[in-house]
């Protein structure tokens, strides 16, 4: 079976089934290069691509240094780039190639989208503060943080243009540079996961060390797929900020640097009177254990046993968020009832991800569509994937 199929996205007509993540990346590169030529009247120096990533376990909302186990998806950001000598970074999207966002060395547009700001920062990190460039970005679906994939693709492009292909081999170094360009990425969408990913591998990140390691996730060999469900909702910014503040308050009350440092959960819960902070601590501490447990299962080659860890993570996150995310919650619950080995919503409140036997994919997808229709919600988007390769040049 193919590495990727994309099913009905929103209210649009169901697209054709697209086979082969690598083939799609090549076709996407050609489209991006053609769009660049149409926008700028010249060819780019090349086209580079970085994947979106999805957290499988570990993203516990408010824990910026949480250990997160993620997988790269076959959808991401494609960047065509050419250097310029005018000190202006002109960035356009494939959807609106006639609407440039222009950055000067000392001027930032007031209403620039986050992905454009990230791309400009990546250009200047690689080429210098006074550099100029022409960039066209094509950002694909399922991006929890599209600015991360955009920054990684542009950073890879600008680094290779300036210093040659050998310079992009140091992926840990590129990840450090990308974090600086992004200012404060979350652990659940860290640039290292996109830059260091490999096919049929998960990436286990430890933000405190600033690096991670690849673990086997051979879904092709086990007859399983990741079903990514985009509910097109998200935690409101105010709620996300409140969650981060509550985690910080709980850590301060317990005298630890981070909730991942809680070793005695029972003692920590007894020391807190606030029921909200207790929920935050319970989820963060147990999620750390689940991330370590899933990493251990993958190291042991027990991919098929990962489902219960996803289920436990989902229930814990749902309880922590007090039912603030009904759509991804419904998607994950329905997926398990219809045959998924395990499923969870992500901490962003937008995506759900399920581990599904290939023979149950249509049943799970149909069940989720029926559940959403029953609530009179817009239908979600679906993507079926195995872990993808990391950021690379595609043209």
From TrEMBL:
Pfam families: GalKase_gal_bdg, GHMP_kinases_C. The keyword Acetylation does not apply. It comes from Actinorugispora endophytica. Residues 35-83 form the Galactokinase N-terminal domain. GO terms for biological process: carbohydrate metabolic process. This is Galactokinase. The keyword ATP-binding applies. Residues 297-365 form the GHMP kinase C-terminal domain. InterPro entries: GalKase_N, GHMP_kinase_C_dom, GHMP_kinase_C_sf, Ribosomal_Su5_D2-typ_SF, Ribsml_uS5_D2-typ_fold_subgr. GO terms for molecular function: ATP binding; kinase activity. Keywords: ATP-binding, Kinase, Nucleotide-binding, Transferase.
């Amino acid at each position: 079976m193919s590495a990727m199929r994309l099913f009905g996205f929103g209210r649009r007509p169901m697209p054709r089934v697209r086979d082969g993540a690598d083939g799609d990346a090549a076709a996407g590169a050609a489209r991006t290069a053609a769009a660049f030529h149409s926008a700028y009247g010249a060819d780019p120096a090349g086209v580079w691509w970085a994947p979106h990533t999805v957290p499988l376990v570990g993203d516990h909302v408010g824990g910026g240094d949480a250990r997160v186990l993620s997988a790269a998806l076959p959808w991401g950001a494609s960047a065509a780039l050419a250097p310029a000598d005018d000190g202006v970074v002109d960035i356009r999207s494939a959807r609106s190639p006639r609407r440039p966002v222009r950055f000067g060395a000392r001027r930032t547009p007031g209403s620039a989208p986050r992905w454009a700001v990230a791309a400009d920062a990546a250009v200047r990190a690689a080429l210098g503060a006074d550099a100029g460039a022409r960039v066209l970005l094509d950002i694909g679906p399922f991006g929890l943080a599209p600015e991360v994939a955009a920054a990684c693709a542009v950073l890879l492009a600008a680094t290779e243009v300036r210093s040659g292909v050998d310079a992009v081999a140091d992926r840990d170094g590129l990840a450090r540079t990308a974090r600086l360009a992004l200012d404060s990425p979350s652990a659940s969408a860290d640039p290292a996961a996109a830059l260091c990913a490999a096919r049929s591998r998960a990436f286990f990140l430890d933000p405190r060390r600033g690096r991670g390691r690849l673990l086997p996730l051979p879904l092709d060999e086990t007859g399983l797929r990741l079903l990514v469900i985009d509910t097109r909702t998200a935690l409101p910014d105010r709620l996300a900020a409140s969650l981060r503040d509550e985690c910080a308050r709980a850590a301060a009350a317990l005298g630890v640097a981070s909730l991942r440092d809680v070793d005695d959960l029972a003692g920590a819960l007894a020391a807190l009177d606030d029921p909200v902070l207790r929920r935050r601590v319970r989820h963060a501490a147990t999620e750390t254990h689940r991330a370590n447990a899933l990493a251990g299962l993958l190291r042991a080659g027990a991919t098929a046993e990962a489902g219960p860890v996803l289920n436990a993570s989902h229930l814990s996150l749902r309880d922590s968020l007090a039912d603030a995310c009904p759509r991804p919650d419904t998607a994950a619950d329905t997926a398990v009832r219809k045959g998924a080995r395990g499923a969870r919503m992500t901490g962003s409140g937008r995506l759900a991800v399920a581990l599904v036997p290939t023979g149950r994919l249509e049943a799970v997808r149909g069940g989720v569509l029926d559940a959403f229709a029953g609530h009179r919600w817009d239908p979600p988007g679906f993507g079926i994937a195995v872990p993808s390769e990391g950021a690379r040049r595609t043209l």
